[in-house]
């Protein structure tokens, strides 16, 4: 009897992620999956971007946290449509959570959706959401060895933003070692250095972001 | 027919953790499970402790990382017995990994084993290892809202070490808000503020640690 071999079957999560991506593409919305350690500055980057581009671009935000809605409230106060997902202990967002969130956002009016993942340099890397860009926010006080210790996350990034460069004078961070470690994983990933506190480098980030617009 | 109800059955992990704990107790060794975000300073605290207490106390280290052995090498250069666990993508240590590591440490000569968990404020909280103390290292540049966002981790801590206090003048960190958020979760957990860079507060940490000795 012939044995049926099933190849390239999408996981339930990947299947839902594909549907999310199709819906976003139809509406000309580019979703960015923002991943980082806790406290690296995901919300700060999103807030700085909103302050710079609000009015000029349509921006929506999906906030992922284990608990609390402090981040979605911050975003919402700027007049930006925002959905808060509480995973209730879960260490990553998944495609189904995004699928449940999209109906609450005015997709036809948006250019970008920032999906702020749960603060975690490991598990979020393994779950497709339907985004078209993966952004890793690293930060100076975390140390230059993070790409060596969390290689999967850094390997799959479309862009790495190195935040808190204003703290560089006060900590021991070897920029050359950091860049080399990333190059060893993926020599095509651009790295943009910023400080959300001083505003340094944000122009370069905004220029990169604007170039990704698909509508 | 009577239905058999099984109560309080230990999970496989909890069962192995109990065995680890029994073995450590027999040898009079106190194991500390050190958990934190990536880059909060787990290795720095361990290194500072080794430098202060080596010779006076028997110290062993189990290092957990997704990849690399940089941390175990750092510890080993100080003449301290160290085992590196690479989880190969896994986001937390589990009891079986500790059980496999203990035969490589001279338990009869040790007072303390520092188990440096994978850098992650979520998943490690759910896996017993056989330790008798759970230490969370938070750090100033991560922000004061981490206990609100990662409540399970902070709720279960026996001690919270707030590291990198030397960076407090350069970032916006509300100490009172941080302490209140922890108090709301568990009003008995002590908080010790330190800087591994300047040495500030390390005496208080060492005093706390020495008081935990069981041999």
Write the layout of secondary structure elements.
2 copies of one chain form a homodimer.
Chain A: H1 12-26, E1 30-36, H2 42-53, E2 59-65, H3 70-76, E3 82-86, H4 95-101, E4 112-116, E5 133-139, H5 146-149, H6 151-155, E6 159-163, H7 175-185, E7 191-193, H8 202-210
Parallel strand pairs in A: 1-4, 1-5, 2-3, 2-4, 5-6, 6-7
Helix pairs in contact in A: 1-4
Your description of this structure?
The structure is a homodimer of 215-residue chains. The first copy, chain A, is of the alpha/beta class and 215 residues long. Chain A is 33% helix and 18% strand. A seven-stranded parallel β-sheet of chain A has the order 3-2-4-1-5-6-7, sandwiched between helices. The model of chain A has no long low-confidence stretch (mean pLDDT 95). Chains A and B meet through helix 5 of A and helix 5 of B.
Summarize this entry quickly.
2 copies of one chain form a homodimer. Chain A is of the alpha/beta class.
Please describe the structure with a list of short key phrases separated by commas or semicolons.
homodimer; 215 residues; alpha/beta; Rossmann fold; seven-stranded parallel beta sheet; 8 helices; 18% strand; globular
């Amino acid at each position: 009897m012939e044995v049926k071999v099933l190849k390239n079957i999408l996981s339930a999560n990947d299947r839902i992620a594909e549907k999310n991506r199709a819906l976003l593409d139809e509406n000309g919305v580019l979703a960015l999956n923002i991943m980082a350690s806790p406290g690296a500055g995901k919300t700060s980057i999103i807030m700085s971007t909103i302050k710079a581009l609000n009015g000029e671009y349509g921006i929506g935000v999906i906030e992922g946290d284990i608990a609390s809605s402090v981040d979605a409230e911050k975003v919402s106060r700027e007049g930006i449509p925002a959905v808060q997902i509480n995973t209730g202990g879960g260490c990553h967002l998944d495609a189904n959570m995004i699928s449940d969130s999209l109906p609450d956002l005015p997709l036809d009016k948006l250019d970008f959706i920032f999906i702020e993942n749960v603060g975690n340099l490991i598990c979020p890397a393994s779950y497709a959401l339907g985004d078209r860009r993966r952004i890793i926010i690293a930060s100076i006080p975390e140390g230059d060895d993070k790409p060596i210790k969390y290689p999967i996350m850094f390997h799959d990034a479309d862009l790495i933003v190195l935040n808190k460069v204003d703290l560089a004078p006060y900590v021991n961070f070897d920029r050359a070692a950091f860049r080399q470690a990333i190059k060893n994983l993926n020599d095509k990933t651009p790295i943009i250095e910023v400080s959300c506190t001083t505003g340094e480098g944000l122009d370069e980030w905004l220029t990169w972001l604007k170039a990704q617009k698909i509508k």
